[in-house]
Structure formats: C-alpha cells, structure tokens
Amino acid sequence: MAPNDTAQGTTEGTGGVRRRKAARYIVPVAVAGVAAATIGLVPALANAGDPDLPQLTAQELIEKIAASDTEQLSGNVKITTDLGLPNLDGIAKSLGGAEGGKGKGSGADPQAQLTKLVSGTHTLRVAADGPERQKVSILDDAAEYSLIHNGDDVWAYDSASNEAFHAKAPKDASGKPGKRQKLPEGAPTTPKEFAEQALKMAGKDTAVTVDGTAQVAGRDAYQLSVKPKQSGSTVADIRVAVDAKTGTPLKFTLLSTDGGKPVVEAGFTKVDFAKPAASTFDFTPPKGAKVTEADKLDGPKNDKNAPDFGLGKEFGKGGKGEDVKVIGQGWTSIAQIGTKSAKPAAGNGKDQLPPQAQGLMDSLGAKVSGSFGEGRVFSTRLVNALMTDDGRVFVGAVTKDALVKAANEAK
C-alpha cells in the first residue's frame, strides 16, 4: 500500500467505533513494571512483505489504537537498544545484587535487573491477562529473570543467583490492587476524541502520517509515522506498526538524526491473543532460594543523607534553591538546571577534581565554549547534556549545537 500522507484527516464516518474508555488503548505488553521499556515495542525483524490493506488516515489509525480492547496476549519480544552507551549488564548486577548475600539488597531486585534493557539485544517472553496478571521474563543464554504480577503480589526471580524478590502490588485510589485508574474530568472518552486530541497536540511541531504497511510476527499491520517538524531534535522518526485486526501496537522503532541503526527497535517476534493459562502467573520460590521482602529494604526515601534532586516537586521549581526551567517547546525542549547567578567553586571546578577523575571527564565529554563560557557536552544518540563550568546543566533530546545555543541565550 502506498504511503498515506493525509495526517490531519477528520473523516467523520469511521464506522464501527463506539464509545469506549480511551484508557483501554494501552497495550498489555507493558507488563510487570516495564511499561516504559516495552509498550508498543517490536523486534528487529525484516518485514515479510507489505500487505495490501484498506487505506486509513492518521486519525482513523489512532482511533483504531484507542478502540483496541486487547488485554490478553502472550508471545516473545526482542528488544535492541543502541544509545551509544557501553553494555550495562555488569553495572546492573552491581546495583542491587552485589551485597545481596549481606541482606542489603537482592540480585532479583527489578531496579537492578531491568537496567540491562537500556543497552544491547535481549529476548523477552511476555504474557498478560487483564490488569491484575502480567509476566515478563528476560531470557539469557544460561539463566532467566522473571517478573510476575498476580493480584496482590509482585514476584521477581533470578535463576542465576537463585534469589527472589517479593513486593505488594501498588493499589489504586479505591484501595484495590491492579485496577485501572479512572480518567480525569475532561479527558477523551471515545477513540475519535482521543485521536483528535492526539493530532491536536501534535500540532505544528509534529507530522503524523500513515506510511504504508508491514508484517510483524506474521500479522498484517499499518505503519504510523511520527516525525518532528522542528530542526535541532535528535529524533528523526518514530514508527509504530499497528495490528490491522486488533489495533494493538506490534512494533516501535525510534530513529535518530545521526542515521545508522535504530536507537530502539524491539517487540514481538511471536504473538498470540488467546488467554494465557492461569498457571502462567503462579510462582513459588524454589527450595533454597534467598527471598528478599521489598518492605524490609532500606531505600533512598528512608535515607536522610540521600541527595535531593527535587524529584516529586513541580517541574521547573527545584528544591533547595536550585532552579529548574524548560527552554523552548515540543521536540526541542531543553531543561536547564541551575542559574547563571550560581557561584562556581574556586577555579571553576577545574582544580577540584583529582587527575584521574579529570581524565575521565575529558574522555567522556567534548569541550565546548560560547558566550556562556566553557563546558562539556556528554552525548548519547538520543539525549545530550551540557555541563557548564559555572555549574549549570542543559539537557534534552537535542543536538550539541542546540544546547550551546540555549546556554548562550539563557538568563
């Protein structure tokens, strides 16, 4: 099917779409606490041909996603992430598991294990049965890590270390575990309203089109393309393959303006929309496994000496006198942390680091200068950060030049 560029189509007769809660568009592949990493993601698979499907506008395709009521599925997902960072498996193992034997952490703690998904290629096995039962397993060559949500309980198990981690599932405002939150007043309540609002939010900064068709995991799909219109963003294109029958996103590909391989390309290599067996979500720690209870662990919220980064405060109003504000809008938004009036350390901080640490800083960051002064840009393929010698930080999914320009113009 040829690309369809009628991005802002407002055809009224979309037929068959009735009032449903817009919240139901969320695909349950976002299972067991890895929503941010896996929702709508697809595998790095070659397409098996472009199926001939009826043409849809971007609005009609977004309505189809919003109308999807998929809550039960199982399958395999392949995730490849290339941010330009080193493989973080070793770091992930050290975050929670290094002192697990001393009772200060757990090798099965999701905070440590899921870090590995930010680099490299990983195969996942996923299953979902509504909002109360989900499971995702990260499959390694000789080990498996599983995260299971079943009603009131969340279990994690690492077969390599024979450690388990247990926590109670978060509860909603009604006190019931695993239930959906109600939509706020004024939120869209039909797929059509959701699609119209999404396209309105895209506005002048974003081009949303239906760009042909594809096959993913053996299923026919439409390709939704979301591109920045602004220059200066590191995002070139976001592509989502949407199942033609169910409206379920099967594929997500994030492309960078630097070209080359996708920054993220992950998702289904196999998918089944039948209800998984109830036993899929059962878990009992194996004999001899070390079990860590989440409520027995000390965390940053209980540590009076933990640094305060202003988390939980209104964005743009940092804590302890540190200002955080947003420069620009849309795809080229940049967060500025700190102000020009901040007092730098003696010698602009250059004399405060030991030679080894300064050498590491020099190797990681590229020196830049401008009317703002001097600083270093720390880069990935998606997010870049400029740290100035006067103590300010500028960060965003923008180019190095955009960061320098923002620093030059900052007040």
UniProtKB/TrEMBL annotation:
Gene3D superfamilies, per the entry: Lipoprotein localisation LolA/LolB/LppX
Biased composition (Basic and acidic residues): 291-306
Keyword DNA damage part of the UniProt annotation: no
Region (Disordered): 166-190, 291-314
Transmembrane portions of the chain: 25-46
Domain of life: Bacteria
Keyword set includes Secreted: no
Entry keyword set: Membrane, Transmembrane, Transmembrane helix
Protein name: DUF2092 domain-containing protein
